[in-house]
Amino acid sequence: MKSQASVLRQILHPAVIVGALGYFVDVYDLILFAILRVPSLKDMGFSGELLVSHGILLLNLQMLGMLVGGIFFGILGDRVGRVALLFGSILLYSIANIANGFVHSIEAYAVWRFVAGFGLAGELGGGITLVTEILPKALRGYGTTIISTVGVFGAVIGGLVAQRVEWRTAYFIGGGLGLVLLVLRLSVAESAMFQQLKKGGPAHAARGNFLMLFTNASRFMKYLRCILIGVPLWCIVGILVSFSPELSRALNIQGEVKVAQAIAFCYFGITFGGFASGYFSQLLQSRRKILLAFLLFTTLAMAAYFFTTGQSNGTFYLVILLLGFGVGYWTVFATIAAEQFGTNIRATVATTVPNFVRGATVPLTLAFNYLKPACGLVASAAVISFACVIIALWALRGLDETYDKELDYLEPI
Hints:
Growth Hormone, Chain: A, single chain, mainly alpha, 19 helices
């Protein structure tokens, strides 16, 4: 019993708890904006086609902010420190979210959605990096599982808040949560691995060198594979769930399918899938086996999605729940990316990889729109979905097992 209590204390390290709450705020905001986009624009006086065009502008600027912010905060995390990354990320996000609640023009809204995306970009990667370096290698998977599982639940809370309060208030709540988290982060210490690296050494000058990922073919391919294994998640969220009302009508689903409910079912599935993937990767002592199993499960769930023709909307929501469970491997995906690279560029990788995967939503939706006229709504969604899984399986095949990998090493310049 004493030994078990000691292990639990190690897993529930302040870095794990604060990292989980940080990712919770991250996902809360992403879902919040998805739900508040239309009511906020309507309240500002926009209607008709402007709801779509302005909504796309805001979404794209937010995603651009996350891409740029991922690079910035990744480099900051490797050069200044993991804790500095987490402080800067949440402070910027909190300011931006509060400012979002005060906007009265599309120009101001666009600026602050970009800043919010920029700030949010460091949360997941920074938290995962710190936890993988602080916890013992046999326990770090449990730590990242807690971060991901608690974090994804932010989508559920974001959905509930967005439906119960005025849109400006919902943004204020998000900003307030971030400021509270900022205070909690005062209890988090820097990782010993990074502190040792910061003292100097052969790779001192290469800390946070983003270009290092592109100057070596083997390192670049490993980085690319880390990104590609995560793409099915945002294919499902960005296409199969976001366009579920249109796809359900094309599949002749009986009863109305609402995007808010579809998102809720999907993220419930991701929450449980995240816990299961992380737990079983520890139990089986393998990241790769679990990623393979969950990708294959996702493939079956995708097939079920496209064969629900004529079924009830309840059945359709159940399939979306299963899709979410399948891509709950996001936990292990984020962990394996951090574990693939040396301490001098680990934060850069762990922070940019999830944001590049999120950014993949843009080319995926563009490809979806491009294929629709020739293939039809359902066929184009199916082609893109299964292509993403096939590419992810190919990418996984070339990655090393990292369950018990020693992380205290440097990437050569």
